[in-house]
Amino acid sequence: MMAIGGAGLAATLPGEAAEAKAGAGAATVPAKVLHHVFFWLKDAGSTADRDRLIAGLRTLAAIPVIRALHIGVPADTEARDVVDGSYQVSELMFFDTVADQKAYQDHPIHRQFVADCEKLWRKVVVYDTLGV
Amino acid sequence: MMAIGGAGLAATLPGEAAEAKAGAGAATVPAKVLHHVFFWLKDAGSTADRDRLIAGLRTLAAIPVIRALHIGVPADTEARDVVDGSYQVSELMFFDTVADQKAYQDHPIHRQFVADCEKLWRKVVVYDTLGV
C-alpha cells in the first residue's frame, strides 16, 4: 500500500511513485491532481446511451496530459445513506498539475467529446482534488 | 497514459498494470474498485479540524486491502457551475474487489477512525465505482 503523504511513508512525486514502488508489488496513485466527473443520463435506463457515453470517454485517453484514466459505473457495494449510486457513468482522471487539468479542459479531443456526447446527460458533477 | 479497458489499449489487472507499465513512464490506475468520499466539516473554516480529519484518514493506510490511497482538498481549478468545491477533505481508495471494500468498511482501524473523527463532519458523500 502506498499513500501520497501517508503517515510514516515518504511523500512521493507522481512519476517517481510509479517507478520507485512498482515491482515491489505496491500499487501507487498515478498523480496528485484528481478530476472526478459523475454523469446522470437523460435516459437513465438506456444501456445504449450509457455505452455511447463510455465510448466517448474512451477517446479522451489520447490526451497526453492525462496520467491515468478510470471509467466506471456504480459498484455493487453495500447500500448506505451516504452512498450516492444514482449516477450512470463516471470518469476519474489524474493530472500532475492544475495547469495540466486546464490544458485537458481546452484540448480539441475533449471539446469534441463534449460536442458529441453532451446531449446524452442531464446532470454532471465534478470534483477536482489536490493531494495533500 | 494507461486506461483500464481504454479503446485500443489492452485491459490490465491492477497488480499487473503497476508492474508492467512502471519504468516505461506510463502511470497506471492501481485497481478497479474506487471508493471516493467527500467530507464537509461542521466547522468548515477550521484548519485544525481539517488537519485532524486528514491525520485520521492517514491511519487508514495501514489497512491491507487498500491498494492505494489519495487524501485531498479542493484543487484550485477553474470555477465552473458543474464543479463542486464546497467540501473540505476527500479520500479516494482503490480496491481490487467489492469484497475488499467491504472488508475495509468493517476493519477495526476504519471503525476507530469513524469513532475518533465523526464528530468533525456534518455531511459525507460516497461514490463507489467499478471500472469498465
TrEMBL record, chains A, B:
A Pfam family this chain is assigned to: Dabb
Domain of life: Bacteria
InterPro entries: Dabb (IPR013097), Dimeric_a/b-barrel (IPR011008)
Residue span, Stress-response A/B barrel domain: 33-129
Protein name according to UniProt: Stress responsive alpha-beta barrel domain-containing protein
Species in which this protein is naturally found: Sphingomonas endophytica
